[in-house]
């Protein structure tokens, strides 16, 4: 293929309810979409970066800038364009994995559409539907939390993840266990809110039979996670710390995690996400697919990834209505606690033009 045009599109999608984590509260998602045009097909990509550099160093304006000034011009010079070429061409540029992932996703979508191949099959999926969990933000009260969790269980979600932070951890978990019982698959996510000095406190979560505690310490504190893992009965899962297959292998070798959350944007794209999956599978480490409150575009691609054999735990691949009243694609609807993996070529979905137009705040053509 040959790159003939790129459009950067900003959309703003209001959330159905505020989503609070240890690093902030979101009421809407400012999302950067990448649309690539080639001489064979068009493809869509979605950038996982948030509006502010709070989850990771990347942020939406920065992703748009680096795509505009560096990544798209570099890729436009490639003689032969396919998804594997994206990583090679962009390798000299340090960091900016979410921006790279968005561009790779768009090229991969175009390539597979041109060849009539679905992303799930390309990645090596073994399932046509995947079990779905849901991420529950920090609430104003335990009562509000219990009502929210009860609603998600009634909707059919097979796993509950509670966001935690100092002052909102043991008591909310205890309340959920007491209300809904030990059979509910339950895990917690700290988003780096603790330090190793909190190990004794975090050990108070052990009696609740959690699937895992996700990213309790700073993303750079891999050795701290290894020490924490020795002190907890609850398995430690890494999220922000895992930025590549190499970092996953290193963390596993150090004993810093027993589970890995794979987010394609965080590791630089779906091809690297598959390599992370393969490393973890080779070491017998279970993985699950995390989420960044994606639109239907990113959700479709995440479902394809979550259908790989090593994804043995339910991920954050929730239905469209978990976050948005109206998606920009045909909505993903939960059925029996599962979502269907798109089977059409590429990522398997496209934006509905009218819905996309309603949430678009800016568009920009990048010269190729």
Automatic annotation (TrEMBL):
Enzyme Commission number(s) of this protein: 4.2.1.113
Cofactor(s) recorded in Swiss-Prot or TrEMBL: a divalent metal cation
Boundaries of every Mandelate racemase/muconate lactonizing enzyme C-terminal domain copy: 142-235
Record-linked Pfam families: MR_MLE_C (PF13378), MR_MLE_N (PF02746)
Keywords in alphabetical order: Lyase, Magnesium, Metal-binding
Family matches, as InterPro entries: Enolase-like_C_sf (IPR036849), Enolase-like_N (IPR029017), Enolase_C-like (IPR029065), Mandelate_racemase_C (IPR013342), Mandelate_racemase_N_dom (IPR013341), OSBS/NAAAR (IPR010197)
Keyword flag Metal-binding: yes
SUPFAM superfamilies given in the database record: Enolase C-terminal domain-like, Enolase N-terminal domain-like
Name of the protein in question: o-succinylbenzoate synthase
Species assigned in the record: Amycolatopsis tucumanensis
Gene designation: menC
């Amino acid at each position: 293929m040959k790159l003939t045009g790129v459009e950067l599109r900003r959309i703003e999608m209001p959330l159905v309810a505020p989503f609070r984590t240890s690093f902030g509260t979101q009421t809407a998602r400012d999302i950067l979409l990448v649309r690539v045009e080639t001489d064979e097909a068009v493809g869509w990509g979605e950038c996982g970066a948030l509006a502010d550099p709070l989850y990771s160093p990347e942020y939406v304006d920065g992703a748009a800038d680096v795509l505009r000034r560096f990544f798209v011009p570099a890729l436009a010079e490639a003689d032969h364009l396919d998804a594997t070429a994206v990583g090679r061409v962009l390798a000299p540029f340090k960091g900016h994995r979410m921006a790279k992932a968005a561009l790779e996703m768009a090229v991969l979508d175009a390539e597979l559409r041109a060849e009539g191949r679905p992303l799930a099959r390309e990645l090596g999926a073994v399932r046509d539907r995947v079990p779905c969990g849901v991420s529950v933000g920090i609430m104003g009260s335990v009562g509000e939390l219990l009502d929210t969790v009860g609603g998600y269980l009634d909707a059919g979600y097979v796993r509950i993840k509670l966001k935690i932070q100092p002052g909102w951890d043991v008591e909310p978990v205890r309340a959920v266990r007491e209300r809904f019982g030990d059979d509910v698959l339950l895990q917690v996510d700290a988003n780096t809110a603790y330090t190793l000095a909190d190990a004794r406190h975090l050990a108070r979560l052990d009696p609740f039979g959690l699937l895992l505690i996700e990213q309790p310490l700073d993303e750079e504190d891999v050795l701290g996670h290894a020490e924490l893992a020795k002190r907890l009965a609850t398995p430690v899962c890494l999220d922000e710390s895992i930025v590549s297959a190499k970092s996953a292998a290193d963390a596993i070798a150090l004993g810093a995690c027993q589970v890995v959350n794979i987010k394609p944007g965080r590791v630089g794209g779906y091809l690297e996400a598959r390599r992370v999956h393969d490393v973890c599978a080779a070491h017998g480490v279970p993985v699950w697919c995390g989420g960044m409150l994606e639109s239907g575009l990113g959700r479709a691609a995440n479902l394809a990834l979550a259908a790989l054999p090593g994804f043995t735990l339910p991920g954050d691949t929730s239905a469209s209505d978990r976050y948005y009243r109206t998606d920009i694609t045909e909505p993903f609807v939960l059925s029996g606690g599962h979502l269907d993996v798109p089977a059409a070529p590429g990522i398997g979905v496209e934006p509905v033009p009218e819905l996309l137009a309603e949430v678009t705040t800016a568009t920009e053509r990048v010269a190729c």
